[in-house]
Amino acid sequence: MSAPAVLPAPVILRRSPPTVRERAALLLGRSARSIARRLGRSGGTAIPGLVAGALAPRLIERLALQPGHGVVTVTGTNGKTTTTHLLAAILRAGGIEPLTNPSGSNLERGLIAAYSGNVDSSGALPDAGRRAGVFEVDEAALARLLPRLRPRMSVFLNLFRDQLDRYGEVDSVAEGWARGLDEMRTPPTLVLNADDPSIALLAQHARGARVVSFGVDDDSVALGHAEHASDARFCTCGSRFTYAAIYMGHVGRWHCPSCGRTRATPEVSARRIELREDSSTVEIAIGQGDAAEAFTFELPLAGLYSVYNALAAAAAAHALGMNAGTIASALSEAGPAFGRQERFEVAGRRARLLLAKNPAGLNEVLRVLTVAESPLTLLAMLNDGVQDGQDVSWIYDADLEMLATGATVVCSGDRADDLALRFALAGVTPVAVIADTERALDAALARTPPGGRLDVIATYTAMMDVRTALARRAGVGAYWEGNK
Ligand SMILES: [Zn+2]
């Protein structure tokens, strides 16, 4: 590989210690967190940030200057948490200690909370010289955070339609990202998904900064047809993109027939992908032609969407100077991120938790399930909280029809009835509809053969509920106990 094995020194930014007011804000935030944890209702992942950010509004700017290896942001509709988790694992394997927001608390308050849990009483990050901030950032929050966090690298994964009540149209989200990049004095290295045209076109805002693109080059995993969730994408010239291969939604090898703009050959590509029921084999190539360096690894995660997340993490790690061996071994050893393909042994059954909160994400999860050879037992949960998306009509944009009609399905969550109707219309009539999480889990486990697998698909808040139930039954601790 042409990149050095040792992480190059980052650009040193003007660093000054936190002010007295900011230190006080951090300490107050920390006490707010311990109170929240003692009350037992949540991990208190956002509270310290809310308290501290309100007292010291410029705190995030100051904190972001501390990690010696700078800050990396990870943004996109789907895959932020897993990609952040995988990139953090690679950096750790390469001797860099990541500072990250592992529970998916990805607004400004979540980032401040990640710092406040790690700084000492003077507000300084211990061992800052060998640390890097690796943060997933909410799509809508990124535009305003870019000029303030001043990341050295920004990873952009994909842009799908998601919770329109919160984000507005996808085009305005992409415009926000471009504006945020334009407002930065020094643009970051851009790590871009070449296969998603809305992401690839961000290269126009690099202003001379390095651009590392990643993408899939394996037609064996392409779809034979466009999906419902594939909202049409239009080129900046106004024409609709055409595709030589579609990998998911509007993501694939795209081309504009009018102006000739086309998907560029990615610098980091996944070729020879084998998707299995609960893992994948992936060959990643870095560089092109004779100069390319390729390595194959077993990814302990299922689905092409997981391959994209691993590919994005590999591209970012490569651009940070990590070598292929470190990347391959870290990716094959990294477990799942919180609530994303986590597995639990419960009552002699294997339960697997799959988060799905928008049509594109649900389609990819369903595609994972269709790989299974044995008949499916499925607990499907739909909530309509703010973090789930309050308008649940999005379930009609997902292709539930791809499930085999032999699947045994229990529906649950606040909107269990709506979900049951959607399944029935797809030809898979649920065997039970039970709003209550514990009772629904009992019913689904009872219908799973001993030694068999129960797949649990859930929207965000439903995932939090059912994960608590699964973790308790499996004897696993609460998530904040694992990442102090
Ligand atoms: Zn065009």
Structure notes:
The chain has 484 residues and is α/β, with parallel strands linked by helices. The protein folds into two domains: 20-215 and 259-333, UDP-N-acetylmuramoyl-L-alanine:D-glutamate ligase; 342-482, Protein-Tyrosine Phosphatase, Chain A, CATH 3.90.190. The chain is 35% helix and 19% strand. Strands 2-3-1-4-5-6-9-10-11 form a nine-stranded mixed beta sheet, with helices on both faces. Helix 13 links the parallel strand 15 and strand 16. Helix 2 (47-55) packs across helix 5 (108-116). Mean pLDDT is 88; it is low at 1-6 and 10-14. The structure holds zinc ion (ZN). Residues 235, 237, 239, 256, 258-259, 261 line the site of zinc ion (ZN).
